[in-house]
Amino acid sequence: MTQFNAAQEFDRQLCTLTGLGYPALAGMSGQAFRDLLLPLRTTVLERAPLMRPPTEGSAPFLLVLTRTLAPLEATVPLTTLAGKEAPGVIERFYAPGELERFVALAELGLPEGGAYLLFDVERGEEFCGAVPRDALAAVAERDRTPLTIEEGIAYLTHHPRALAKNKCFSLAGSRIGDRRVPALWISKGAPKLGWCWEGNPHTWLGLASGGGRSR
Question: What's this model's pTM, rounded to 2 decimal places?
Answer without folding.
Answer: 0.97
